[in-house]
Amino acid sequence: MKDIDVSVENAIDKNNHPAFLLHLSADRLEVNVWLAKEDLEDWRQFLRSKLDAILAAGISAQSTVFWVREGKSVYLLIGEETENWDISLMLTEKILRKIDDEMISEQGDTRDQLKKLILSDSEKALSDADLKKVEKDLGIKLPNEFVEFYKLHNGGEADRTTFEDYYKKIDDIEISNFFSLLYRQDFQDDPDYTLDGRIKNEWLENKIPKNLLPFTMDWGGNYICIGLDDGVIYYYFLDVWSKNLSVEQNFASNTQPIAPSFSYFINNLQLELEA
Predict the structure, then answer these.
(1) Which of 25, 205, 209, 227 makes an SS bond possible with 232, Cβ 3.0 to 4.6 Å?
(2) Is residue 272 part of a domain?
(3) pLDDT tens-digit readout, 196-232
(4) End of a domain among 46, 74, 107?
């Protein structure tokens, strides 16, 4: 099957709930899926997981939509159950990412939500060319929400700095300043003092996994990072390292998810805890 074309629009499902209407078309096949916005976080967890899973989320042609991951294959099944379906589409990770990007874009209020966090003492504003330069320098693709935020704020001191772990695994986190991607006026834009230059060295020195991009830290010097593969926000312990473990094992044990997305992290920062 040729590449699937994807488009998304805001809609209301049959239960009168806010939803996304997903248009998927390829060759002579066209499928419309109503995905309730209340199911969006479960869908994104499915997107990020690399484990075999089945998620019932959405309605199409009056039937349930199942998202099925088996090994490296992902299927969209429409029917009463996964063993008795009427329509089947094989999806790629690229298509799933496209669906997610389109939903983020269609939300429309993502940038407005990110504006609610006020940052002071930000560095020089970033242009599209600056952001492309960072991507080229680091050999990565910056997540959309991350890009939108850094177009508004190139680092700085936030007015809300406390975050409660979404997964309830670690204590509340008190962050310091957001890092600037490029430019650092106090140090004549020396790359050793910007995230663009700093992270390259830390990746090379195996201080942090190459799929994590730190954007702030807590007052203990541990990083808060965005996962470049999945968009999840991770707490990365820089102050813990075991000589009895391999680099990969240390990376795994030092990496703890704390938020399902960048926008969730930003929008759930709270005022500083009182002493």
Answers:
(1) 227
(2) no
(3) 778 988 999 999 999 999 999 999 999 999 999 878 8
(4) 107
